[in-house]
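Supplementary material to the annual report.
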Amino acid sequence: MFGLKTDWELDPPPRYFTLEDYEGGVARWCPGCGDFGVLTAVQRICREQQLPPEKVVAVSGIGCSSRFPHYMKTYGFHGLHGRPLPVACGIKSRRPDLDIWVATGDGDCCSIGAGHWIHAIRYNMDMTVMLFDNAVYGLTKNQTSPTSPVGFKSNTHPRGAWLPPLDPLQAMLGFTNVSFVGQAVDWNPILLHAILRQAHAHKGLGFVRILQRCPTYSGHVFQDLQKSPDQLLLLTHDDGLPMTPELDRLFPNKEQHDPSDLGKARIAAANHERIPVGVLFRDPSRPIYDDFTNYGLGTSVEDKLDSINAELDRFAI
Amino acid sequence: MSTHVAEAAGTGSGSRTTVPQHIIEIVSDSGEGAQKAGQAFGAVCAKSGRGVWTVEIIPAEIKPPARSQAGASGIRIRVGSRTVTNMGDEADLVVAFNEQVLYGRITQHAFRKGTNILLENRWATDDSPEIRELYANALQEFREKGFVVHELPLEQECLKHTSNPRVGKNMFVLGMLCSIYGFEVERALEEAAFLFRKKGEKVVALNHELIRAGYAYASDHIPIQFFVPARPNPGKSIVVNGNQAVGLGIMAAGIDVVAMYPITPATSVSHYLGEAFHRVGGLLHQAEDEIAAIGFAIGASYAGKTACTVTSGPGLALKTEFLGLAVMGELPLVIVDVQRGGPSTGLPTKVEQGDLLASIWGQPGDSPKVVIAPATIEECFHFVITARKLAEAFRTPVIVLTDANLATGVQPIPRPNPQEEWLAPPIDQAPWDKKVLAYDWDVESGASPRPIPGQPGGEYVLTGLSHTKDAHVAYDPDSNRVGMEMRSRKLAALQKALKPPKVFGDESGGDLLLVGWGSTQGAIEEGVERARGEGQSVSAVHLRFMSPLEPGLEEIFRRFKKVVAIGIHYSDPEDSPIDKPNRRRSQLAILLRDQTLVDVDSWTRVEGQPLSPGTIYDAIQDHLGRLARKES
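Predicted assembly:
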């Protein structure tokens, strides 16, 4: 009739997600806080990858950066100080369909949660972990953190921090089954985005340490680094962080670094003269715990009942 | 109950004495297979229709030195012609591989006058004069204590069949016990064939030879013979310990993830699950520590999977903060606490009921949650299923308190018949109705539906911070108060659904009421039964719901002149030099006094031992005596 086709179907429009679909309200970090940049980078990656918001879970511990899940419009878990990693592993263990982003701080990850950190690296579950390292306890108002530099004055060490800071990169490159270690700085959104995207694409635990300014308590720690990019060393490689004209322009010091070489990654991490940024190490062949934990997910009710009955019969008299 | 039996046995008449129940122990150095022989004998008894309770006697060390008093390793088997619910009082018959390990049992008050002791006599002719002397002295001492000692050349007899009698002796003893208790030797042969099935025909044949030899030896040389009649119609049964029952319950409940960290005496749950859990598609995760174990389970639960963690007191202490988060975030979770002696490392292998108040109140702030306590091994199975359902219905953690007594006790229980409705339903991934908030509390019950990650439109952030109905962080006074009220209301709603507990004895009241909880039920009721048999006015109530408590307690308590809370946890005894108002009462008494305003007294033991009917009977005499003195 009227020359129109009668058997047409309207294709339902595919769900398309915009940045807004990942933005969960106004973040309440201090003005100038480095956390804003990380949030934006993650939201951008979610949109680029068109991750359905209901399949994204942001998991965190306690601290300024651990407010992260509240500012995502996805599922979120804002749990206990130091304990985001066990929770994230538990979520992932039986839900391979979920995309997990862990936000943790230097106190959360490297101090109170250090035990979980070592083992999460060893479990190597498929998720992205972001260490917001601002070298200070911010939320509790200026105490020394395990990554505070020697001499750092805080409310707990008013005469300056005593001990040498823990180096998360060197530590992690010694943990068994480490599979991805990257380092970024919050004040360079291009680099931050590029490295987080690599970490997210990595099959296994993609760990990115982010040097992150706390304008209130530790702004001075990263001031020099921010002002003089020549104190940073950009690691690029065709199999790691590929060089782009933008990155080339932003970083005066560059080095070809093959991220599959653990020995070289350790040497790069130990370089405190020129702080390495980029992908230090990546080995997608490391075993991931997910392959084990996903076992038996589709077991039917009938099979379960049969197995339980067989188990009971083993004890039967 | 069995005193006349021992007398009959002491005469050496050789005739078979019928007894309603008997307690047998096999005690040895560790590594001599006493437990294996005892479990096999327990299985023979159970398969022959007897009620059985076996409990292992475990030294704290893995391999303590030989012939040491503290190294006593072995097993107790209580056999009866009705369901056996506890380990009973003193043993009637003991097989011992050396005399020193018996001292360890004597300090545990395991024997009485007339207990038959079948003792290995090779030590009498040992090369070492020191050992010969120790043996002779012990023999004299045991006889002075009134034990009936029969010296047996166990090793010498076994040498006729094997060059290594140290490992073969246990099967010889199994044969002996079958003869003494009148079981067909074939029953024992079947057990051995099963036990050694993986070791090859030769090993099975040798052990069969030893069993037959033991059987023949006892028939010819041991002058005591007993007969425990079978139970009427025991029905289809399985033989399990409490931890296996928990493991089976976890599977029958459809729990998907169990995350744990090794801790005595809870670990054997994971041993069993390690073997079997994958068969139902479940995941057993051994975490890096106790905290990570509950964190992992909480993560799985948040993602919609039913999860459980299994621990003991020190582990529960470590899990405290996460437990509070599960309450605050309203996550269903099952926590099994197999209680042991505390505080601190305490008595890791021994029983205590000391985690009651820590379970109910142990978290920072007010964190109402459900706490239930199975009283029997059978209930260890069913309560896990109940716990999962309550956890989901009320969106809350549920703690299941068992203890080392239930964990290691083995008995035949009715075989459960698994149902589809026991299993957790699959998770809902349908779009979430955005009009329903993440914590849409029902003001009557505090319950609310829960969005699961993957449900479009249900996105919310679970937080341990004070929050509103829509899961937004809120520091205002009203939000915090309302959240507290709603979480607390769950317990009130659950209590309304419960029935008052049944009174064992006289429901209309009387002189004395004993109130117990958890694993002590069998001992308490047996003690009460004995006293009632003598005409005493005593009854018992056994609680299974600890938080919330079962309703109607005050009304029941008021019908009795005196109410005493019984438990295996500490309280200042009445005769201690402490002024009455300052006496520290037991954890259970504190709960009951608060709930009922009745002057509930405490009677407790913290000796690392399960309560026995005899100690309960003595406690009844003590309290009735005091009551009579007060009245006169």
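The longest strand of chain B covers residues 21-28.
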